[in-house]
Specification:
Growth Hormone, Chain: A, single chain, mainly alpha
């Protein structure tokens, strides 16, 4: 992409990067989970998500450093190619996971791998547990099928799996339709729409959003096991709606109060702005509402990250019956990336047709719909045994007031 002579080369490069990121998003957590001691496995998988958001923050810092360099975008894309090269070289020294080795009948190598993870006196026990786990997985695979169509057919036969899939897919789609990745991807552009015309200033302010996203990921580690996944998502969505509608209002007021520009001014803005000590977007006039827009954008990020940013992934790790967990998690992840594609490819079109304020209001409407869907479809999974979750889904999850109506109907008549 950095050396692209024409736009279609950038598109091809972006497709390649997208395939790589998609593969890594599935294989990296899996590798970590299969290569970690049981007692710290959850923390290391969570750390993967935290480091992703931290990586976004670092990337914005690097982008900021190149904003005034000739050929800015080529440098930004070119520098982004360095970390994958380093990572590729380092990964050549990584061993396969003990689980993969054992499953492929490389028992000795699997044992050696376990010795690097566990104390010597625990290796025998872990090897036996690994054997049992693989045997159970193979039995489950034989029961549900080994191709996608067969697995889907078998999954749909079980009401608890259907409801788990509905809940798991719902939280992943809602996560994207609140507009978070559009905000993250187009943060500098949004900053300019808010009136900060300087690319350097806009990029610098974008560090606020990525920094808060990282902070929110840390906060989620502290609160998600205390407040629960369902409650955290619902509270997060309420605050997201407040943030998005407030952003829409501020952008609308900013638009209504923007100075009128006629055709003469459009062609002579350079002289006019210089005389009036201001510049037009994106060579533009800074808005007096710009700072408030940045504050609201920061609020939106910090209420999203601990709730809708992390809880959907945790729910999908817990809500499926054991034999369908791999299938369910894969379908949910595919739904997440598909929703991501829809939201991000429509963002610029929406801003052109609805305006920035209308786009934020639309995302707010999606968030309201998401709140209703999650409220009625997703049960709480915090501290609940997998067997109990399966029972709840088999019976059918009933939140208030449906639960109250059901209880009243079940009472014997006097």
């Amino acid at each position: 992409m950095a050396v692209a002579p024409v736009p279609w080369v950038i598109v091809i490069g972006r497709i390649s990067v997208g395939l790589g990121v998609g593969m890594a998003s599935m294989t990296a957590p899996l590798y970590i989970s299969e290569s970690s001691p049981t007692r710290i496995r959850g923390a290391l998988i969570s750390m993967n998500g935290i480091l992703i958001t931290f990586g976004q923050f670092v990337s914005y810092c690097i982008n900021l450093a190149f904003t005034s360099v000739p050929g800015t975008w080529r440098w930004l894309l070119g520098v982004a190619g360095v970390p994958p090269v380093v990572q590729f070289v380092l990964m050549l020294s990584l061993p396969e996971t003990p689980r993969w080795l054992y499953k492929n009948n490389q028992i000795e190598k699997a044992t050696e791998g376990l010795k690097t993870i566990y104390p010597a006196d625990e290796v025998g026990e872990q090897l036996q547990l690994l054997k049992q786990s693989i045997e159970e997985d193979e039995a489950n695979e034989a029961a549900i099928g080994n191709n996608l169509i067969t697995k889907f057919r078998n999954a749909m036969k079980h009401p608890e799996v259907r409801r788990a899939l509905a809940a798991g897919v719902a939280v992943q789609v809602v996560q994207q339709f609140v507009g978070i990745n559009s905000v993250m991807y187009y943060a500098p552009t949004i900053m300019q729409l808010a009136g900060y015309a300087s690319k350097t200033v806009a990029m610098g302010l974008s560090l606020v959003t990525t920094g808060l996203n990282t902070l929110g990921s840390f906060i989620s580690l502290l609160v998600v096991d205390r407040f629960g996944r369902r409650r955290l998502m619902l509270v997060s969505l309420v605050l997201i709606v407040v943030g998005l509608l407030s952003l829409g209002l501020v952008f609308n007021i900013s638009f209504q109060n923007a100075p009128h520009i006629n055709s003469y001014e459009s062609t002579h803005f350079g002289k006019m702005c210089k005389n009036e000590h201001r510049v037009w977007y994106d060579k533009g006039c800074p808005s007096k509402f710009g700072l408030l827009a940045v504050i609201l954008l920061a609020f939106y990020i910090i209420v999203y990250s601990p709730g809708m940013g992390t809880a959907p992934w945790i729910v999908n790790a817990e809500i499926y019956p054991l034999k369908f967990r791999g299938f369910g998690g894969g379908v949910a992840a595919m739904s997440n990336w598909s929703a991501n594609l829809v939201v991000n490819t429509t963002f610029l079109t929406l801003t052109e047709n609805l305006g920035s304020w209308g786009t934020f209001v639309l995302y707010g409407g999606f968030s309201v719909i998401g709140f209703v869907i999650i409220y009625f479809l997703v049960p709480e999974t915090k501290g609940v045994y997998l067997e109990e979750i399966e029972k709840v889904l088999r019976k059918g999850f009933r939140p208030w007031p449906l639960k109250q109506i059901e209880d009243d109907d079940a009472k014997p008549a006097k």
